[in-house]
Amino acid sequence: MPTTSVLWGESSTPTTSRLLAAWSAPSARVAPVFLQVQLPALGAHVHSVTALVADAHTLLRENQELRAQYELVSAHNAGLVAHASVLHDRNLAILHRAREGYRAGMIRLEQALLSRERVERDYADLEGRVADFRARADRTEAAETLLHVERDSSAEQYRDLQAQLQAVQDQAADYAAQLARAAAAPPPSSTPLTRLFAAQGERDDLRLNVIGGGSWWPPLSSNVMTLSPSVTA
């Protein structure tokens, strides 16, 4: 698995994969090359041409190995450059996404703070309403208690008024009965009061004469004889 895939969880391009594979392979690791030929000093005496030709072939082979290593190192460096470019681009993309995420997070945080302020204001408003409702409930309960007391008092007053009304009705019935009896009674005598008093005086005088032993009996007045039974009773 490529290194970038492990780090970022994304698949790399084929070229980058090949370069990373070549760079990660053990054969791509460049080992230092030590020269196996001792070059004679300039102007020194050459003892054997055959040995010199063998050394030339050895140098040629070492030169080819060095060239192959150079090409491998160049490819490795190119892979590293490409990988660095890819990492740089990805880092820029990650930085861009991080900035966007930071902005979005700050916007959400600001919205959350505003929502919290609104919630706190709504909560304070609700607390005020609850306090108002509780005060109203207390006033309503007090009014209900007063209403019960007044209703009980009104019931007592109603019973008292009913008793008074019944007494007045009974008294009115009594008066009506008295009026009925008075209407059914005979009419009173039409004798004047003076004649009534005169007759009463004559009767008193007669009684005094009888008590004193006198023999004079005056004649009865016709006025006394004409008294009505209701007056003499």
Give me some keywords for this one.
mainly alpha, disordered C terminus, coiled coil, 78% helix, 233 residues, single chain
Number of strands: 0
Oligomer: single chain
The general outline is rod-shaped
Rg, Cα atoms, Å = 74 Å
How far apart lie the N and C ends?
153 Å
Low-confidence stretches: 1-16, 219-233
Q: Note the run of SSEs as H and E.
A: HHHHHH
Strand content: under 5%
Structural commentary:
Keywords: Coiled coil. Residues 109-185 form a coiled coil. With 233 residues, the chain is mostly helical. It has a domain at 3-37 and 46-113. The protein is built from 6 helices and no strands. The longest helix has 136 residues, at 49-184. The radius of gyration is 74 Å and the shape is rod-shaped. The relative contact order is 0.05.
Task: Please give the structural blueprint.
Blueprint: H1 3-8, H2 14-24, H3 49-184, H4 193-212, H5 222-225, H6 229-232
Coiled coil: 109-185
Keywords: Coiled coil
Question: How is this structure best summarized?
Answer:
With 233 residues, the protein is an all-alpha fold.
